[in-house]
Structure formats: structure tokens, C-alpha cells
Amino acid sequence: MTSKRLLSFFFFFFLIKSATSQEIPFGSPEYFNSNINLNLVPISFENEYTFSDLDHDQIISISNGKNLIQYIYLDFDQPVSIQFKLDTDNFPSDGELYFINPSINGWIGPYRKNLVEHHPTKLTGQIKSSRVIIEWLSPIDEPAAIPVRSIIKVTEPNFLKSTKIIQPPYRQQIDRERIVILLTGYWPPTNEAIRLFSRSLMLNPEGWIGENWEDRGYNVVSYFPVFNPPDCSDCGQGSGDLEVDYQDTSNDFWNIVDSLSPVAIVTFSRGYIDYSWELEWKYYNLTTWSNDFTPPYLPTPNPPESDVPINYIRYSSLPMDTIVAAIDSAGLGLTAYIDYTDGAGGYLSEFKGYHGVWYKAEMDSLNIPCYLAGHVHVGGLIDWETAHEAAKVTLREVIKIVDYYRQLPGDVNNDGVLSIMDLLVIVFHLLETNEMTEEQLQIADLNFDQVITIADVLLLADIIMGI
Fold first, then answer.
1. CA nearest to 266, candidates 426, 395, 120
2. Distances in Å between the alpha carbon of 253 and those of 301, 307, 311?
3. For a 10 Å CB count at each end of the chain, is N or C smaller?
4. What is the pTM of this model?
5. Which of 129, 99, 103 is nearest to 116 (CA)?
6. Residues of the chain whose pLDDT is less than 70?
7. Per-residue model confidence as pLDDT tens digits over 19-65
8. Looking at residue 184, what is its pLDDT?
9. What phi and psi values does residue 442 have, to the nearest 5 degrees?
10. Strand bridging mode 60-63 / 67-86
11. Helices assigned H by DSSP within 302-383
12. Of the candidates 393, 376, 381, 439, which has an alpha carbon nearest to the alpha carbon of residue 412?
């Protein structure tokens, strides 16, 4: 009785103390259909280069009868990661802007007025190369100067810290019911990258590989639309789950997560036509989406999430820096990077990416485990096999973090954080007002002495208080 009174007093004291990143509509540059010869224009700068400082006499102009096409071939001497800041004030409604990496015959774009005028940063996607060709198409009866303000070298924001994975103390493996990690795709190569994780024999006749994937204790399940032909470029809406349609995507997504209750979500879609593995950091609750293929052409409701303001930002919780490092180390020939600067494209990619991080936020508010969510844009030149290998590399890094949260010593309510709620469960167990499960008993044994005592409560209290 004395120990129970002491425990109750301690708990009351503790309470008082603690109270104080996109597939943009498809297009390809005219450059690849021409025999034009371009002269290199050397560019050297530290952080930002103002485009008006260029010698505009070196811009080459040609006509295809409908458009005036302007080219300039930039030479940076060595590979650099850059973005271009766009001049949307001088962007005609029928203009198209491309940034071409001639070393791989890849590109980012087309950028069109309706895609860029509402972007908060006015920055293009990231391109890493020693040389870049800018192609600008404007109507021949409305010619316009190349709408680029400046060239900016990409640097990581200094307020961001690398993901730290702190290994929990060793404990005997807990035999848990297998839980689900959800992968979704859109255009190839992303639907092909995750096809083998589909449980549908029609979509995946080779057989589901996601059951207890790599003996890691998780069922990995994928959903994606299908296209005809499968290696399409201008793919259209597709058919099946998560069609390239706002209403279909939203309806399918919520049905899928309601049935699976995933502990992590990685959404994929095709990004720029290159070899990039681009992790999107933030996603906007937009109203200014690009049109899809079927009426109504925009989301309903618009913005999608009515309980937060227009342009509200939600962020990825994927271990982005460790994924980038793992992709780099895998020797797949991909350029992995994090897009810190803008949203995920204002089209179906951002829409689906927003749904993933939105679902995680909803589960957080209900104390239901969904530890990670985020979106990856996959370069359109990546072959299907390489994209599949990169998806597996990404998935392994995700599982490391999910494992850490699920095995967090003291996290007896399994919500991924140590809090007073965990303390309550242990205290009420010791007061014999509730009984913990075998799994909870193992997690609550912070000093690993095979019994749950007030010593475990004190250790957990110190952790929560940061002592």
C-alpha cells in the first residue's frame, strides 16, 4: 500500500512538473528534331548569376512557321547543381520553356504560364550538369525574350539537419503482427518500379514480393494506374487504381489507406526527363492546379483539405538525406537530391504527395501510427529495372526509421513518441488498474531487468523531461 501511495504521489508530482516536390504536362524540346549548331557561352559565378548579364547576341533564333524558337548553350566548365528563376511577368500564354542536359539528352520542362505564375518561388526544378541548353518557344506573332531572371546554385538550407538514426538498446525481437507499408506510383517508370509489390495477379502475374519483404517484418503493398502502351511518354489518364484524375486519385487513396492503415507511405511519380531521384520536401494545399483529363478538371473540393488555409504547407517526413546517400552509394547512375525550394509541381504528383502527408497528419492527431510519408519524383529516362532497384533502396531506408519508432524503448502506446501517455500506461499497470500486453511489458522494461518496477517509471520520466 505504501509503494502504491508513493507511486501515486510521484505521478502527481510529475504531472505538475511537466505542466510547467512532378510530372508536368508532357512535351519534348524541338532541339532534338533539329540540326542546329550552337556555340558555347561560358558562365562563371559563385551563387547567383543575373540572366540579363548574358551577351544576348549569342542567343540563336529560328522559326518553325508557328513559333520563334530561341536557344542559348550555357557552359559552366564543371558539373553544378542549378535552378533557374523565371520571369513570369513576360511569359506569353502560349510560350514553352525547356532546360536541356545534352550529356544525357534529358530535360526539365515544359514550363508554361499556367504552371509557373502561381508558384511561390518561381524556381525551376534542379538540374546537375556542366552544360545546359535553354530552349524558349514563343508565338511568332508575339515574340518574347527568354523569361529567365537568374541562375542559382543549389545549396542545402542551413536550418536543416541530417536525419539521425539512434539505434535503440538491444532487446529480444518482439513477435508482432506484420504491418503494411504503402507504395503508390503514376506514370512509368514509377508504376513499373513498384509493380512487383502489387497483390493483383492481373497487374503482377510474376507474383507479389511484398509479403514479409526481405524478412523485415512488413508487408509492402503497391497501387498504380496502367497505361497503353506501358512505356508511354504522353500517357494520358490511364486506368485502374489512382488514375491521373483528381477525383479518382482522392477516392482511391482514401479507400486504400482506410483498408490498409499503413505505417509509412511513399508516393512516386515521373518527374523530369533525366536520371534524377528527387525527394520532395513540401506540398501545398493549392487551388491553382493544372487541369487533368476529365471534367471536373480540378480537385473537388478545391483546395483539397478544407480545414486548413489555402496554400498551407505540409512536409515530408521521409529520411530524405539518408535516402539520397543510399541511392548515391548504390551505384545505379542516378542523381539523387532533395528539392527544398518549391512544391511538387502543382499537378497530380503534388496532389497525391499532399494526400500522403495529410493522411499522416490525420493519424498523428488520432495517435494512430503512421510514422513517415513523402513523395519521390523519378526521372523519365530511368529504365524500369533501375527504378525498381532504387525503389527498394528507398524502402530499406524507410524501414530503418519505422523500425526505430516501433522499437522505441518506453513507447508502450506505440505512437512513435515518448510522452506522458506512455507513463500513464505503466503507472496504471503498477497500480493494478490495467494490465499491459506482453509486447508492452517488453517495451516498458527500460532497464532490461525482466520486471516492471518504479525504476522503469523513473527512467522514462527522465527521458521525457530530458534529464
1. 395
2. 15, 19, 21
3. N
4. 0.77
5. 99
6. 1-26, 118-120, 156-178, 416, 448, 466-467
7. 343 445 567 899 988 888 999 999 999 899 999 888 878 899 998 88
8. 98
9. -65, -40
10. antiparallel
11. 320-329, 348-365
12. 439
Q: Are 348 and 225 in contact (CB under 8 A)?
A: no
* Contact (CB, 8 A) for 237 and 294: yes
Q: Give phi and psi for 247, each to the nearest 5.
A: -65, -45
- Nine cell digits for residue 76: 559552366
Alpha carbon distance 310, 302 (integer Å): 9
Q: Which of 128, 166, 181, 87 is nearest to 338 (CA)?
A: 128
Q: What is the pLDDT of residue 156?
A: 64
Provide the β-strand partners of residue 379.
none
Residue corresponding to grid cell 494520358: 236
Helix, strand, coil % over all residues of the chain, rounded to 5: 30, 25, 45
For residue 119, the model assigns a pLDDT of: 67
Q: Cα(136)–Cα(146) distance, rounded to whole angstroms?
A: 6
- Which pLDDT does position 201 carry in this prediction? 94
pLDDT at 170: 35
Q: How far is CA 334 from the centre of its chain?
A: 16
The letter for the amino acid at 133 is: I
All three cell numbers of 396, joined, read 530499406
Tens-digit pLDDT profile for residues 118-137: 666 788 888 889 999 999 99
Looking at 95-201, which runs of residues are DSSP E strands? 96-101, 106-111, 127-139, 148-153, 179-184
Residue 466 has a CB neighbour count (10 Å cut-off) of: 5
Q: Distance between CA 342 and CA 281 in Å, rounded?
A: 8
**Side chain identity at 178, as an amino acid letter?**
R
Q: How far is CA 39 from CA 30, 59, 71, 133, 187, in A?
A: 17, 9, 10, 10, 35
The closest alpha carbon to 210, from 223, 226, 200, 199, belongs to 199
Domains of the chain: 30-153 (2.60.120), 179-363+374-405 (3.40.630.20), 409-465 (1.10.1330.10)
d(C-alpha 6, C-alpha 358), whole Å? 43
Sole residue written with cell 476529365:
294
| Total residues belonging to the chain | 467
